[in-house]
Amino acid sequence: MKILNALTSIALCCTMETFAANPDAKYADYPSYAGEDLELTVDNSGTRWRLWSPAAEAVRLTIYPTGSNTKAERTIDMTRSDNGTWVASSPEKLYGKYYTFSVKQDGKWLKETPGVWAKAVGLNGERAAIIDFSETNPEGWAQDRGPAIAHINDAVIYEMHHRDFSEHPSSGIANKGKFLALTEPSTVNSTGEATGIDHLKELGVTHVHILPSYDYNSVDEANLQANQYNWGYDPLNYNAPEGSYSTNPSDPSARVREMKEMVKSLHDNGIGVIMDVVYNHTADNDDSNFSLTSPGYYYRHRNDGSYSDASGCGNETASDRQQMRDFIINSVKYWAKEYHIDGFRFDLMAIHDIETMNQVAAALKEINPDIFVYGEGWTAGDSPLPVERRALKENVAKMPQIAVFSDDIRDAIKGHYTDAADRGFATGKPGLEETVKIGIVAATDHPQVDYSKGNNSKFPYAAAPTQIINYVSCHDDLMLTDKLRKSMPDATDAERQRAARLAQTIVLTSQGTPFIFAGEEIFRDKKGVHNSYKSPDSINAIDWTLKHANAEQMAYYKELIKLRKEHPAFRMTTTEDVAKHIKFDKTEPGLISYSITDNANGDAWKEIKLIFNGSEEQREVKIPRGNWTIIAEDGRINASGLGTTKGGKLTVAPTSALILAKEK
Ligand code: CA
C-alpha cells in the first residue's frame, strides 16, 4: 500500500507516456561519485562527511551522543559539492559520536538515515557511529591471512547460520548464537564429542559460508532475550556487522571487533570465511537507506513506476546504474580488506548484471587472488534487466571468475525441491542419470554427456569446472534429512542415512566445488520445516547430541572430505581435462559408472572407478582386472582403503557407492 501511495504523488508530476517509455531514464543523467571517501572520513584533519544525493535540494547532518533515544547535539547544513555529493566537516575527531543524514527532495524532508555507507552503527542500525577502527583489531590482525587455495574447487564449503551452529544447549559453547561462538576452542557435547570450531577442524571443511552477517532488519537488537531468529536476508546496513551476533549491540565497536575475532579464530585454524551478501534487494522500499539518501535511484521500476521485484521481497536493486555498481564493488572490497573475508556468495545473483559481477570478481582478485565469488544464478521473479545481461547460471561462461550453484545435480540426486515427496537418483528414482552426469562433469562440455536429457539446463553452460558449486542441500527448502524423511516415508533413518551418504559421495567426488549444509554430517534435521527463515531455535538449532547418536555418519563425511582433499583428480580445473580424463561406462537406470583416468590433474592414482547404485537392489558390475584398492563400499569409506580386489564381477550394494582406485 505504501508503494502505491508514493506512486500516486509521483504520477501527478509526470505524464503516463514518460512512465511507459522508461521510468528510470532520468537516473542516467545523475552524476556518479567514484571516490571511496563517501559518507565518513576521520583523520588528523578531523571528521568529514560526503553524502551522494544528486537530486537533493538540501541535506542536513545531525550529531547525537548515543545510538538511540537521545536528542541531537547539533545539526549541520551540508554543502553541495562535486558529482552529486554534499559535504560537511568538523575539526575534531568525533569518536564516540553518532550521526544521521536528512535529505530534502521535491520540497519534502525525508526521514533520517545513517546513509548507505555506515561502517559502524548503534542499536538496530538507526544511527551511524564514529569509531576508531584501529582499535577494533584483534591481536596479530596485521598478519592474519585466510587459507591459501589455488582454485575455488580446492574448497569444501560448509554453510552455517550463527544461531544454528551454537545456540542449542548441547553445543557446550558459552557465546551461543554469537560471532564469538567460533572463537571458543575445546567445546564438547555431553558425551565429549567436539563441537564448535573443533568440530569444523575434525570434519575437515576448508571454508565456512556464514549466512548474512551484515546488519539486517528483522531481529530487534534491543530485545535479544526474546531469542528471535532470522536468516538475515533483509539488509539494512550493508557495511556494518549485525548487532544481534555481538555481545553488545549498543556498542558499535563490539560487533566489529567480535566479527574480526571470529575471522581471526577461523583463520588461525586454517578455515576461510565466506560471507553471504544480499545486494539484490533491501528490507524496506521507500524507507530503506538507499531510498532515504537518493530516492528511486538504486532500484529498478516497472513501466507504471512501481518497484520491480525480481527478488520476491518487494524490490530489486539496479546494479546496472553506476553508483549502485560502485556501491556493490566497494562494499565487497571493504569487507575483504577490513574483515579479511575470503569469499562472497551472492544471493539471487542474476538480479545483478554480468558486467557488475565481472568487476566484483576482478576487484576482489586484485586484493587477494585467493578470494572467490559464487552465487545463485537465478532470480525470484522477472526483471526489467534483459536476460542476456543477467548474471544467470546460463550466462556463467561470460563470467570466467565466478561460480554458480548447480540446481541440476541438486534436484537430480535428491528429488525436486518443489515436491517434498519427489525422489531423486540417490533415493531410487530412475531416469535422472544423465542430469547427475551433468553434475559429475560440472556442467562442462563432455562427449559422453547428453545435455538434451538434462532435467534442467540443456547445454554445457560452464566454461570450466571451477564455475560450478555442487550441492544437495542448503538453508533453503527441505534440508537433506527432512527431504529424505518426506520422500522415503516408509524407510528407517538408517536407510535414509545410506541415501545421504550416497548423495554426498556423488557431490564430493564430482568436479566443481562441493558445498554442504551445517549439521548434515550428524544427520540434523529442521523438523520438516522447508522455509525456516524465521522459525525458532527449536527448529533451526543443531542438536549436537546427534553427533554421538550418528557417529558413523560423521565418520563417513569426514573420510569423504579427506578423500577429496587428498586427490586432485576430483578437482580438475579445465573443461579439456574433464573431457579427457572422465570416461563413463554404460549408464543403466539407477546405475552410474565412470572412471577418472591417467593420473588426472596429477593424482597419485592412475585410475579411480566410481559406481553409484541409486536403486534399492543389489547390482552386478564388471570391473577390469587389476590391483584395485576398495575405497568405498556398501555405505563405508576409507580414503586409505577398506581392502583390495582383483576386479571382475563385483556387486554394488543397494543405495551405495563403490569406489575403487589403482596406482598403476
Ligand atoms: Ca540488525
Bound molecules: calcium ion
- N- to C-terminal separation? 70 Å
Specify the structural class: alpha/beta
- The number of helical elements comes to 16
Strand content: 15-25%
Strand order of the largest sheet: 10-11-14-15-16-17-18-19
Largest sheet: 8 strands, parallel, barrel
The average pLDDT score comes to 96
The parts where pLDDT drops under 50 for at least 5 residues are 1-19
Rg (C-alpha, Å): 26 Å
**How would you describe the shape?**
globular
| DSSP, total strands | 28
How would you explain this protein's 3D organization?
The chain has 664 residues and is α/β, with parallel strands linked by helices. It is globular. The chain starts with a helix and ends with a strand. The model is unreliable at 1-19 (pLDDT under 50). Bound molecules: calcium ion (CA). Calcium ion (CA) binds next to strand 12.
Secondary-structure blueprint:
Elements: H1 2-12, H2 16-21, E1 41-43, E2 46-52, E3 58-64, E4 74-77, E5 79-80, E6 85-90, E7 98-105, E8 108-109, E9 128-129, E10 157-160, H3 162-166, H4 196-203, E11 207-210, E12 214-216, E13 235-241, H5 252-268, E14 272-277, H6 289-293, H7 322-339, E15 343-346, H8 354-367, E16 372-375, E17 402-405, H9 407-414, H10 433-440, E18 468-470, H11 480-487, H12 493-509, E19 513-517, H13 537-540, H14 546-549, H15 551-566, H16 575-581, E20 582-584, E21 591-596, E22 607-613, E23 619-623, E24 628-633, E25 636-637, E26 643-645, E27 648-652, E28 656-662
Parallel strand pairs: 10-11, 10-19, 11-14, 14-15, 15-16, 16-17, 17-18, 18-19
Antiparallel strand pairs: 1-2, 2-6, 3-4, 3-7, 5-6, 7-8, 7-9, 12-13, 20-21, 21-22, 22-28, 23-27, 24-25, 24-26, 24-28
Helix pairs in contact: 7-8, 9-10, 11-12, 12-15
The structure holds calcium ion.
Calcium ion binds at residues 124-125, 215-216, 219, 221, 236, 242-243.
